[in-house]
Amino acid sequence: MLSIDVKTGREVKTGQKTDPKIARLLDELVRRLKTSAGHNLKAVLLYGSAANDSDDLPAREDELNILCLVERTGAGELESLGDPVKWLMEAGVPAPHVFTLQELERSADIFAIELLDMKRHHRTLFGEDFLSRMRVPMELHRLQVERVLRTGWLRLRQEVILVRGNEKKIAAILVASVLPFTGWFRHALIALGEQVPENCEEIILRIAHLAGADPSAFQTALAMRGGKVERGKMDAKGTLPGYLAFVDRAIDEIDRRLESRPGQT
Fold it and tell me: Domain for residue 233, yes or no?
């Protein structure tokens, strides 16, 4: 839920639990963007898990998703964003996505997952909350869910092949992939018309129930990502088979259920 901070005039999520370090970084980013872009900057939004009060895993700098809405995207306007974006990336944060409002509205058909995430979990750091009036084409959302799950699964397989059983590298793969898959599973529940929990653990338990799969290895990876289990104390190599089996079974069942839904071919 969004409300207005009476001291800053900014819209914020009520009950937000942003890490103070992250909050300072975002405030400084907005200041730098406003100084560099001037009136061309229309809005700055944080979206995804970092803007979700209910998410049980704290966001890291490299997981912050930022959207900048501008009026024009000519060479001069893009160049003006260079210094603040360089500063942001040096702080470990991915470069923001830059759109005009017209571009974003026309991109809804190919960015259905991203736009739905933005609409459901976002915080307006500067400017107008333009996302509230945007329509997400849910008929295309289902197709994107199937695509990202399959491409993510293929990419995970490739990464496992390349690490050749290295314990530390396997642990890094588990930590890096567990949140993206959790997010995609959440969208799968949306596409299936299921009740969607906000908590990562509950999402995985719901998927495990639907797929008849053992979630224990996936839960171990979530615990490691959340800092509840130290990487050096987890048997990453022993966790990997169960992790892969869960992802494989879950994706197959999601595909089967989506294909059997009324109106789907």
Answer: yes
